[in-house]
Batch of 4 targets.
Target 1
Amino acid sequence: MARATDKKYDHLFQLLLCGDSSVGKTCLISRFADNEFRHTHINTIGIDFKLKLFTIRDKKIRMQIWDTAGQERYETLTAQYYRKAQGIILVYDITREETFRNVTKWLRNIEDHGVKGVKIILIGNKVDLESERKISTRHGQKLANQHNIKFFETSAWKDINVTEAFTELAEQILAKVESGGGRDRGSSSIRESAIKLHEQQPTPATKSHGGCCSGGSSN
Amino acid sequence: MASKSKVASFKEVLSKEEIDIEELRRLCFYGCTDKEGIRATCWKILLGYLPVKRKYWEEELRRQRSSYHRLMNDVIINPYKEEDQTEAVDHPLNPNPDSQWHKYFEDNDILLQIDHDTRRLYPEISFFQLPTMYPRKAFNTGVVLGIEALKERVSHSSLPSQKVESSRYGVRKVKIKKNEEEPFSPLKEGEEGHWEVVERILFIYAKMNKGIGYVQGMNEIIGPIYYIFAQHPDSLWKEHAEADTFFCFSNLMVEIGDNFTKKLDRSRAGIGGSMNRLMTLLKDRDTEIHKNLIDKEIDPAFFGFRWITLLLSQEFLLPDVIRLWDSLFSDSERFDFLIYVCTAMIICIRTDILAADFSVTIKLLQNYPIDDMQRILQKAQDIKQFYSLSKR
C-alpha cells in the first residue's frame, strides 16, 4: 500500500457532505476528488468515503471526505460522524423545492451533532438544469446570508464551481487551524498524524480562489 | 459437479410430491443453476412463497398473482376514489391530512424517491433499462382509465404548487426535459422498462407497509430477485415475475426489515446488533485483525452497515451476488451465513488491512478488492463448519 507517500501532507481535514437524497452529494465528491461524473451511480447507503490530496497556499492538505446517505432512515447513523467533521458541505438541488426547504433541518442537525464552530458552506447543485430551476440564486444566497455561511451554485455534471466550493471550505478550515482555533484532526481521533513537511512558516496571504457566488450567474 | 448432473439433481429434488426442504437447502447452498428456471423455483421455495407440497403450487400461484392484481388496482388506479363525493370541496392546497390531495402529494414524494433510485438500478448491466415483454399498459399509459402513469406523476410531482391547480390529470404532459447525455434510451410509447416494474413493486410495497415504507437500498434487494424471475424460460412464470417478486421481496423483508428500521438501529434485532455480531465473530476467528481495526478506530458502520443491510449486493457484480444469495437463502438460520461471509471477507484481505492506515483500510473495505466469490464462500464455509463442529 502507498503508506509512505500517504503521509506527506501538512494537514488532515475531515469534510462531510449532507443534504437530501439525490441532490448530487456523491457526484460532487466524484467530480472534486476524481474529476469524473457518472449519470448512473448507485445509492449511498450509510456512509462512504473518499480521499483527496489538495494544495492551498503551498500547504498540502489531505482531505477525508465523508459522503452520507440523504434519506431520513440513515440520519442516526450519519449524525454521529458530524462531530468528526471540521467542515460540512450542505447540498440542495436547485430544481427541487423540498430539498431547499430541508436545508434548515440539516442546519439544525449540524447544530445538534456537529462541533462548535464547524465550517459550513451551502451548495445549490444542478445549475446545468437551468430550465427546471425552482430556487433562485437570490433565495439561496439569502438563506446562506441568514446563517452567515458561504454559498455556491454548482454543477457536478458540467464541472461548475465545484473546486471553488471545496477550496473555500478548505481555506476556512486552514485559516482556523492556523490561527490555533481548531484542532488538527490528524493527531486527534484518527491515527494518522500529519508529518509536517514545512516547519511553521509565515504563509503568504494569497487567496487561490475567490470563488464565492455572490448572487450573479454562476457560469 | 458437471452441469448436467447438477440440473438432474435439482430436478430430482424439485419433482418430489413433497419437497425435502433440507435437501433443497443443501443443494442450493453450493449454487443453483438458471437452467430450466431452477434458480427461480428454488428461491421461491426458500423464501417461503411456494409451498413444499407441489400439488398446492398452481392454486397458490393463481391466488397470489390475482391478489397482486387487486393490490395494483387499489394502490395505483383507485386509491383516491373512495371519497369522490368530497372532491367538490377538496383542493390541492387543502391542509387537512385526510384530504385526498394531501395523500396524493405524499404518495408522489415516495414515488419520486423510488423513481430516482430505480432509474439507477444496476447501471453496469442493461437489463433494467430494457422493455419488459409484459407491460401493464393500463398502469403505464393510464389513458384508458383516466389515471396518470406512475412515471408521469413523478415527472411533474416536483412542481405541484405551480401546476396542479388546473386539474389533477391535466398536467400529465408536463415532462422534465432530460439532459442530452441522458444515458437511458427512451422506450417507445406503451413500452415499459424493467426498472419501471421494479418501481411499481416498491411503490406498492411502501403503500402496503407504511410502518417501514420505502427505504433506500430496498431497490438493491429487489433487483436480483426480479432479474432472476423475469428471465424465467417458462412464459407464464415470466409474465408473473412482477407479482412473484413482490411476494418474495415482502417475505424477505419480514426477515431483514429490522435492518431498514431506524428505531431498531441500536437493538439486537437491528443493524447495530448484526454489526456487533460481525465484530464478535471476527474477534473470535482472527484476533489480530480485529485488534488492528479497533486500534485504527475503524467503525464497523463504515462497511458493515452497507454489507449487512444490502446482503452484500453492492459489493460484488450481479452474477456473484446471485451466486452468493443461493447460499444466503439456503441458510436454515438466516442470516447467520451472511455474518460468516462478512467475516470471511475481512479475513481474506487481512494482509492488506494490516499494512494499511485508516484511510486505506476504509477504502479497502468500501471498495472490496476481491472478486473471487468462490474463495470468499470457501472461507465462510470453513467458519460455518468450525462453529457447527464446536456445537456438537
Target 2
Amino acid sequence: MSFIYEEYDVVVVGAGHAGCEASLACARLSLKTLLLTMSIESIAMMPCNPNIGGTSKGHLVREIDALGGEMGRNIDKTFIQTKMLNKSKGPAVHSLRAQADKKSYSNEMRKVLESTENLTIKEAEVVEIITDNNSVKAVKTYSNMVIPCKAIILSTGTYLNSRCLYGEVINNTGPSGMHPSKYLTDSLRSLGIEMFRFKTGTPARIDKRTIDFKKMEEQLGDKEIIPFSFENLDKDFYKEQISCWLTYTNEKTHEIIRENLHRSPMFSGVIEGTGARYCPSIEDKVARFADKDRHQVFIEPEGIDSNEMYISGMSSSLPEEVQYGMYRTVVGLEKAQIVRNAYAIEYDCINPNQLKPSLEFKLIEGLFSGGQFNGSSGYEEAAAQGLIAGINAAMKIFDKEALILDRSQAYIGVLIDDLVTKDTHEPYRMMTSRAEYRLILRQDNADLRLTKKGYEVGLIAEERYTSLLEKEKNINKEITRLEKVTIGATKNVQELLSSLKSTKLNTGTNLSELIRRPELNYESLASIDPNRPKLNKDVIEQVNINIKYEGYIKRQLNQVEQFKKLENKKIPSEIDYSKIQSLRIEAKQKLEEVRPVSIGQASRISGVSPADISVLLVYLYQNGTNNRREDDTNDYRE
Amino acid sequence: MNNDTIVSIATGLNNSGISIIRMSGDNAFNIINQIYRFPKNNKNILDRESHTINYGFIMEENKIIDEVMLSIFKAPKTYTRENIVEINCHGGIIVTKKILEIILNHGARLAEPGEFTKRAFLNGRIDLSQAEAVMDIIHSKNEIALKNSVNHLKGELKDVIRSMRNTIIKDIAFIEAALDDPEHISLDGFKETLLENIKSLERKIKKLILESSNGRIIKEGIKTIIVGKPNAGKSSLLNILAGSDRAIVTDIAGTTRDALEENISIDGMSLNIIDTAGIRETSDIIEKLGVDKAMKYIAEGDLIIYVVDSSEPLDENDYKIMDLIKEKKVIILLNKTDLKNHININEIKNKLNSEMIMFSVKEKLGLSKLYDIINKMFYQGVLNLDEEIYITNERHKESLKKALESLKLVKNSVEANMPEDFYSIDLTDVYENLGNILGERLEEDVINVIFSEFCMGK
C-alpha cells in the first residue's frame, strides 16, 4: 500500500552541490520545496578534493554567486586557504581557488538549508518517477510513499547503481561508503530515458602525522584574501590560513604503477564506465605521459579538525598493497599510513543531449536535472547546473520564460550548451579552453554580467541590485574621466615615468593612454592624478582592465556579435528533419536527437557539418522563416 | 527525395555535330522511360546498371525523333546526387530543341543557370568553395579563367588554405592546452615558434592577395580603357576591336557622352574594353559627367589605350590626359597615320614610357601589332600562370585581407609581451576568416553570397 504524502511544488532528489542550489533557488522563489536525500549526513558533502574553485571553476562559483546561488557565500564561511591562480597571465584566466574545511562546508550549507523558509529536508530513497501523459506527477520512495509535485529536479550525483573499486575489491556503495540508489535507473529507463555509465576516482587520504612535510615545498595562501561572493568584497576577511604542500612522484613510483597496471580494474576491463581525460588517475598519467619522469603531487588538508590529508594528483584504483607501495615511494610519504584507500567509482548518468538548454527533459515535462547525473564532473559544475535547473523549474511553474545563458554570457552557458549539444563520452569538466569569449567572461566581472539576471529571476535582493547599478555607474564615470585628464610632460610626470621604467613623454597625453602601457596601471599613476575620486577596489579593477585591454575586448565583442547572429536564427520547434531531403542521414539523426533551438546550436553538434548547416539554412529560408516570399519556394517544398 | 526534375542543353545551342541534353532529378528515369526506346524494344532503362551508355532512340508518338546515345547515372553517385540522364543527340538547333521540348512536356522543368551545381552543393556533393569555382566556370569569360576555376575545383586552393588553418589551430590548441594543464604543457619558447609561424603565414597570405588582383583580371577580363581627346578615333577603335557597330562614330566632337563597354576575346585573353568620353575642359554639364567618369575609369583600369590624333598638334587636352595616365600601363596608338603627321613623337615619349603603335582606324593598320603587345604584356610580363593558385573571388580576397590584419594584431601582442591567453582572440579571427574561404564557417554574409550566386528565389 502506498501512502500519499502532501503535495509539493518541487521535489529535489539528492542533496549534493546541485541539489542544494536547486532546492534553495526554488524555496527562495517561494515554492514549496522538498529536498530528498539518502542521508542527511551527506548534505553538501565533498567526497573528493577538499577545495572549491580553481581554473575556470572559480569562474563558475562567481557566476553562481552573481545569480543568487549559495556556493560562493558558503566557501567564504569555511575556507582555510585561498589563492588567486594564474596571476602572471591575463585577467581572463585569473581564477580563485579556496581550500575548504570539508566538515564545516557541509555543516554550514546544511544550516542554510535548514533555516530557509519553504524548504523541507527529508531522508528517503526515490525509486520511481510517476508521470502522466509525459508530464511529472509525483515521486515514489523506497518505503512506498508517493509525493505529488509539479516539478522534479534530479541531482543524484554518483549514487545511481554506484560501485567503488580498487584492485579486485568491489563495493556496491556510493562515495565514502554511502548507500547507493538501486532502483531509480530502471524507472528512468522505463520512461524512455537513455542512460550512460561513467566513472571517476579519488586518491588516498593519508594520516597527517605520518607525512614528512620538511621534504616538501610549502604552498601558502595569498596574503590578500579575495572572497568568492560579491557580497563579501568590501568585508575584512583576515583568517589564519593552513598550508598545502607540494611533492613529486618519481621513477620508482612509475615503475610500481607500470608493473601493476594490469591489476587496475580500469585496465583489466572490470570498470565499464568512461572516465575523464582531464581528471586522470595516476595510472592514466603514467601511461599517457610516458616521457615525464615525475608528476606533481599536492598534499591538501581535509579540514582543521581532521588528520586526513588529500593526495591530489594521485587518484588510483590499484589494489590496496600496490597503493601502499606506490604512495610510499613519494618523497615525504615514505612512512605514510593510509586512512582511506584510493578508489574508482562508477555510476549511472544520463545522455545530457536529452535535455533542453533549460535543463528540462525534452521527453518529460516538469522533469529537470543537474550535476553529475547530467554527465558532468566537479562540485562547481554541479552547483551551477543545480542553480539553473532550480530557477527553470520555478520559471516553468510560474509560466515564465526559462533562464538560458548563452556562450557569450557565462561559463555556465558554455557548460550547459556543451552538455546538451555535444557528444559527451566522458565526465564533462569545465575548462578555460571551452569558453570562446573568455576575455569578457572574467571572474572579476561576473557580477556585472549576471546580477541583473539574478535580480530579474528574483534571487537577488533590491539592495544588492542597486549597489550593482551604482558600481556600473562609477566604472563608466571613471573611464570617461580618465580619457579627459590631460597629462603634460612636466618634471613630476617624467620622474614618475622613469621610476616606473616607462618611456618619458614627448608631448601631452591623457591618463587612459598611460594606463594602456603594459608597465603602468591605474594605481601606479595615482600621484599625477590628484583629482581622483575615492573608489572601491573592485571598481578600480574594472576601470583598469577595461582601459588596458580595450582593443582586445572590442575584438572579442565583434566575435560575439557574429556568434549572436547565428544564435538568433531560431529553428522552429516543430521542424521535421526527416523531410529535409538533402540532409545527410547522420546529420538528420543528430539534429533529431538534439533538436537545437538555433542555427548556432545546430552548428555545434558533433556530426553536423557546415554543408549540413547551409542545407538547413536554405530549407528555413525557403520555408519562409526569414520573411521570404511564399511563391518562390515551391521547388523544395514538400 | 522529392526534387523536381530539371533539364538543360549542356552543350550550348549551336550547329555542332553532337549536342548533350542533361536531366537530373527523381523523375529523370521515369521521363526517359516514356520517350526512349531500345533498338529491340524489350528493355527497361531502370534495369540498366548505373554509369552505362546505351544506344537507342528518342520517340514521340511512335515516331523516331533522333538516334541517340543515352548515359545513365543512378543516385547517389552522381554529380547532383540525384538520378541523371545524359542524351547525346545529333547536333543542330532543331533536333536538340525538339528533344528538350519533349522532355519538358513529360514533366521536367528547364534548369536555371547553375542549378545542377546548386543541387550538387545542396545535396552535399561539393562544398561551397567547389560550388563557387563551378559558378566561376559558368561565368568565366575566357580560357585562363577556366583553367583557374578548374584548379579551385581540384581543391588546390583548399589545400593551401587548409594547411594554413592547420598551423593556426595547432597554435591555438597549444596555448589552450597549456592554460588548462600548465603542469604538463609548458609555453617556454612558444613565442619564438609562434612568431615564425606568423611570418610564414603572412608571406603566404600576402602572396595570395597579390596574385588575386591578377585573379580579377583573369575572371572579369583585363579592364582596358580607351582614352583620348574628342574625335581622336576612340569609338572607331572600339568598333574595330569589338567587331560591332555599338559605339556611335561621328565627326562631331564630344558626342560619346557616356562610357561604352565591350567584352572581346583576343587569343584566349578576355578584354573588358571601355570607351570613354573625350577628356577636355568643358562647360557642357552632360559632357562634364562623361569626363568625370573617364577619370574614374582610368583609376580602375588595368590597361590604358591612349589614342592620339597624329593629324593635329598636341593640345591642352593631350597634356592633361598624359598627366592622368602616366602611372598606368599604357599603349599609345598614333591614330590617323593615313593623314599628314602634325605631332612631335618625342614629346609624347618624354612624358610616357610606353609602347607606341602607328595606327590607322580607317585603314585598320597596326591592329595585329596591338594584339601582340597586349598579349606580350599580360601573358609574359605580368601573368605567370604555371601551377599557381589564384584567388578569383572578391569574397575570398576580403577574407584574406582580414586574416592578414588579425595576424598583425597577434604579432603586436607577442611583441608587446602580452600574456599568451591574449593571442587566441586574434588567432581565432585568422582561423575563421580563412574558414570563410572554404565555406567551413558559416556567417550570415556567406549565406547571402550563396543565395545570390545561385540566383535563388529572385
Target 3
Amino acid sequence: MTLENLAQVSNYAVASATGILALAFVAYVAQWGFARNVAPERERVTAGSADELPQASVPVERSNMAGGIGLSLTTLATIVLLVGVVTRGLAAERAPWGNMYEFGCAATVAALLVYLALVRVWEIDWVGPIITAFGTVVLGASAMVYVPAGPLVPALHSYWLVIHVFGAIISGSAFFIGAAASVLYLIKSRAERNTPEDKRVGFLWRIPASAKIDQVAYRVHAFAFPIWTFAALIAGPIWAQYAWGRYWGWDPKEVWAFITWVVYAGYLHARATAGWKGKAAAILALVGFATFVFNFVGVNLWVGGMHSYAK
Amino acid sequence: MSENAVSELGRRELTRWFWRQLTSMRTALMLLLLLAIAAVPGSLVPQRGVDARAVETYFLDHPKSAPILDDLGFFSVYSSPWFSAVYLLLMVSLIGCILPRSFVYLRAARARPPKAPRNFSRLPASASFETDASPDDVVAAARKALGRSRIDVADREGVREVSAEKGFLREAGNLVFHISIVVVLIGVAVGTLFGYRGSVIVTDGGGQFANSLPQYDEFSSGTLFDTDDLPPFALTLDKVTARFQPFGSPQAGAPREFRAKGTYAASPGEDDKPFDITVNHPLAIGSTSVYLLGQGYAPVFKITDAQGNVVYNDAVPFLPADATYTSNGIIKVPDAQPEQLGFQGFFLPTAVSQGGKELSTSAHPAAANPLVGLNVWRGDLGLDEGTGQSVFILDKTKMEQYQDGAKAFRVSLQPGMAADLPDGGSIEFTELRQFARFQIGSAPLVKVPLFGIIAGLIGLMTSLTIKPRRTWIRARQDGSRTVVDVAVLDRVPRDDLPADLDDFLERFKDALGETEEKATT
C-alpha cells in the first residue's frame, strides 16, 4: 500500500469510528431511557434462594440489551479508530500525534481504551453516555482542524515527541474518565440527598452509590496525576531545554499545563482535607479537566505561542 | 501586669494564630488555587520575558488599556509582586507544613504499633473465627500473614494480642514530594541568578561570532552573573540549510529541516572543531549551549557612492515576517559621500507578481525567485549621537527620501542585478546568503530542578499507592478452641477495607493450616 492509500484508509477509519461512536451514544442513552421507571435492584441477600429471584421485567431486559449494544459499538468504534490512528502514523511515517487533528484522534482512542479496560475491572459502563458523547464531539471537532498526513516541522523531529505527547494523551484520557465520573458523582449525590426512598426510580439508581463513584473518580485521578507530572513537568522541560534552550519559559501552553497541574494537585489535597471532600473536590476535578481542554483548544487556536502545532 | 506585657502576649497569640492559619491545609489549598488563577493573565497578554516585540505591538494596538495593564504588572506576570506574593506565601505555608510533619514522622517511624482497641466491632472492618490451634500458633501464623509489618505481641491476662502497622513509606513519599518542590524552586532560582542567555544573528559563508557581550543582539543574565565570565569561544558559520515542503505538495511551504554547519574553537588558540546544529540538537561548549532558533535570508549588497568608491559590501539579514519568508531589512551606509545613505525594504524568496500590479508577494519560503525591493534615503543616519541604535531600525528624522515623480523611488533587484542611484552611484545584489539566529546560554545546576522533580514524582507515586494499615489480632483460649478476633484500620479511609480483610483472613488461615481443615469439615 502506498502512503497515499494508507492516509486514505486512516481518513475513512476515523470517519467511520465517529459514526459508530455516535451510535454507541444513542444505545447508551436508550439504556438509561428504557429503565426510567424501573426501581433499583434490591440487595441479593434479601432475594433469598436463586429460584426466588424476581424475573427481570421487560424494560430492564431492553435496558440491558441497549447497554450491551452500546458497549459493543464502543468496542467496535475503538478498534476502527485504532486502525485509523495506526494507519495515520504509517502514512506520515512518524508518531501519529504531531498536530491538533492527530492529537484529537489519538487522545480519543486512548480514552476509549482506558474506558473499556475500566469497564472490565470496575464495571464503569455507567459513564458510557458521557464518554461516547464527548468522544464523538472530539472526533467531529478534530475533523475541523484536519491536515493531510505529512512530515512535521523541524522542532518536532525528536523522540521526545513520542514520550512527552504520549504522556499527555494518557493522562488526558484518564482525566477525562475522572471528569465523567465526577459529573455522575455530582448528579447522583444530589439525587441521594433530595430524592425520597419511594421515588427512587430510573437508571440513576441502578448505578453504584455516589461514594463508590467518588472512589472510582479518585483512583483514576490518582493514576493520571503522576503521569501528567511526568509529561508536563519532566518530559516537556527536558525537551524544551534541547529545542529552545530553556526548560521553562511561561509559553501559554506551559502556563496552562502548570494551571492544570496546580488544580489537580488541589483536587488531591481537597480529598485529604475535611470539608472539601465530595462536591467541592468533584467540582475541582471538573475545573482541572476544563483547563486541560482549554489548553488543547483555546491555546492552540486563539492564544498561540511556541507550541502552536494546530495547523 | 503592665499593659505592655498584655499587648506583647496578644501579639504573640496573634502571630501564632496567623501562623496556624497560614500553615493550615485549607489555606495551602486556597493559595494553590490562587496561584492557578494568578498564572492565567500571563498566557493571555504577551510577556516581556517571552516576546518583547509582541508587548510593543500590544501597546500600539491598545494605547488606552496597555499602560494600565503595565502598571498592574500584566506584561511580566511571573515576576510581578502579586504573583510572587502568592508563591512566596505558598512556599512559607509549605515549609511550615513540612517541618512539623517531618518531626512527627521521625518520631512515628520509631514508634511501636498502637495497642489494640478494646472493642473491635467499632472499627471499620473486623471478623472473628475459632480454631483448634493454640494461641501461640495463632500468633506465629499472624506474623507470617502480616509479612513486613511492624509487629508487637502482648500478653494480657492470658489473651495474646498482636498489633501490627505497615505503610510508613506513604508519609515518607508525601514528605519527599513536598520537599522536592522546594528543591526544584531553589534550583530554578540558582539557575536564573547565575545564568545568562542571549541571541545573535550570524550569516553563512563565513560569518563569525565570538562570545562577548558587544557581539550579542539581545542579552540578559542573572543578577549574580558577571559578563566577564562569558566562556571565550568563537564560531564560524559556513552553511545554513533550510528545506521546505515543495511547491504543489500537501502542506507546501511547511518547514522540514533547518541546519547550521561550521567550525568552532572552545577557547582562543584551540583547534577548530566542526559543528552541525539542528533544531533539537544544540552544540554544547562546556556549560554553554548554542541553539538554532531561527533562520532567514541575507542578501549581499555592494554599494558604490557618487564618487565611485565602494562604501558597502556585506550581507544584510532580512527578518522573516511570515510563513512565506516575506522579510524586512535595513541597510545603513555611513561612509557614502557626499551624504550618508539609508535603505529600507523587503525581500521575497519566491516573488510572484499579482495581477499586473507592481508589488509582488512571496509564494513559497524557499528561494526560487528571490527579489529585493528597497526605498532609499539620504541625509544623516544619526549614528554619531552616541546612543546605541538597532540595526533593524532606520532613523529617518534627519533623512530625505528619494522620489521618482509622485511615487517613492524604489530599486527592485534580483541576484546579480545592479541599479543606479538618483544622485550617482549604484547598488548591486551580488549574491544571496542565509543567516542563522542562535540562542546562546547557560543555566548552571540545570540538573537540580530535574532531579528534584523526578524525586518528587517518585515520592508522589509512593504516597498515592501505599496503604498505611493497622491490624490487630486477639487470640484467647476458650475450652479446647481458640477464639481469634481480627480488626483492620486504614489511616486513609477506603471503601475496599472489608475485601482487604477477607484477603488477609485467607492468608492468615492458610498460615494456620485452616484451609485443609475447612475442606474436611
Target 4
Amino acid sequence: MSEEVRFESGRFEGIVVRSPLVSPARLADVLHKRFAGTESYFSGEPAVLDFSEVRDWPEQVDWSGLVAFFRRLGLQPIGVRGVPESFDAALKRLHLAILDEAALRLAATRPAEPEPAPAPTPPSQAPASPRPCAPTTFIDRPVRAGQQIYAPEGDVVLMAGSNPGAEIIAAGSIHCWGPLRGRVLAGANGNLQARILATHFGPELVSIAGVYQTFENGLPSPIANRPVQVKLQAIQGQSHLLIEPIDTI
Amino acid sequence: MRIVVVTSGKGGVGKTTTSAAFASGLALRGFKTAVIDFDVGLRNLDLIMGCERRVVYDFVNVIQGDAKLTQALIKDKHADTLYILPASQTKDKEALTEEGVEKVMRELEAMGFDYVVCDSPAGIERGALMALLFADEAVVVTNPEVSSVRDSDRILGILQSKSRRAIEGREPVKEHLLVTRYSAKRVEEGEMLSYKDIQELLRVPLIGVIPESEAVLHASNQGVPAIHLKGTDVAEAYADVVSRFLGEDKPLRFVSYEKPSLIKRLFGST
C-alpha cells in the first residue's frame, strides 16, 4: 500500500453562520429561543462564521467564547469572514482561518513572523481552492525596488528578473529568467508543492508556504547567481527549504 | 514637443547639474528648450544657470495665475533658444497641482518649444511625482554607489506606474541611464561600482557616463552650465549625452583609467 501523502485542493460542504452579533452572551440569548436549549443541535459540521453584517465592532471580542458557543451547538468553526484586520492576531491564536480578501493580508504578512515553520494548512482550511487551471502571471519588465507582484492564484513568471527591494508573492510557483533579487514568496496560500526556480539566483529572502530563509551573509557560491531551485522537503515531520543548484545541460 | 524628466530618487547625485547641462546642450543644437525647476521650496536651478538675479515670477506664480508664463520664463545668457522656469522659494510643494502643471506644458507646446526638461527634486513625494507625470522620456541620474542605484531603481518603478503614459496605458516612458560623478580610478581600485555593474543592476540603456570633476563645482559656483566649460571632460561627456539622446552613435569616453607612466610621473603631465 502506498504511503504517499497527497495535498489536493478540493471543495467541501459546511455551514455558513451569518451573524450580526459578536457577543457570545447576546448570541446565546438570541439563539436560546431558536434551539430551545438543545445542546449539540448540529452534528459536527465545519462552519464558517460570517460577521459581515456586524455594524458596530467592539474593541474587544471574546473569540474563544464565540468558538466555544458554536462548539456547544455542535458546529466546528474553522474560519471567519468579514472581520476587521485588527482581530487578525486574535483569530490566528485560535487557529481560525480568515476566509475573505483578508486572506491575502495574512498570506502577505506571514513571512515576516518569527515562526520558522507555520503548520501547513489542512486542505479543509484552504482559503480559496485554486481552480483546475490557475492563470499564470507573466511579467515582462524587471520588477523594481518598491514594486510588488502579487498573484493570488497560479504561478508567476518573471521574464526580466527582479531587483533588490522588489517583492514577488504567488500562490503557486515562481519562475525567474534573469537575476532574481528581493523577497520571493511562493505557495503563499499554503501550497507545499510550490517551488522557486531561477536562472540567476540571489534573493534577500525566499519562502515557500511560509517556511522562509534569509541570506544575511550572502549566498554560498554553489548557488549564488546560478540556476537554482527552492522547494520544501519534509524531514521528520518538519518542513525545510531545500535550495539546490539545477544542473543545466 | 518632448518632455524629458531628469530624476534619481536620491539627492545630491547631479540632477540639477545634468538638467542645466542637458537643456543647454539641446539648445546649442538649435532646439527651442525650456528647463523647469520642480524643486519648489529649494530653488537651485536658477543658481546653476546663473540667472538667480533675474527671477521675478516663478513656476508657482504661473500655476496660481499670478503671472503669465511669458513673464516667468527667463531667457538664458549662453544659449539663444533656452528658457528657464524657476521654482518658488516661498511656496511649498503642495502648490504644484496636476492641472497647473498640465496647463503650463500645454502652453509651452503652443509656444513652439521642442523640448521641456523637468528638473526633479529628490525623493518620491509630490514634487518628484509632478516632474515625471507628463514625461515622454526620463534621464535617471545615478552615482556609482549602491544606495543611489537602489533609489534609481525605485524611481524607475514609479515611472512605470505613476507617469501619465503608464496610467493611460500608452507606450512607456523611454528610460535612459546616466552615471555621474564617475571615477575610473576608484572603479579600477574596486572602491566604486563600475558603469557596467550599474547597468546590469538597473537594465536600462546607458546614455552616458559623466566623470567626477572639480570643474562641476566651479561651474555651479559661477552659474555656468557644465557643458559650456570648454575643454573639460565633463563638458565633452555632456555633449556626448546630448548626441546620444538625439540618436547619434558616440563611443563612451572617460570610463577607463590608465596608470600614469613613469615618464609622466617623473616629468609631470605634458
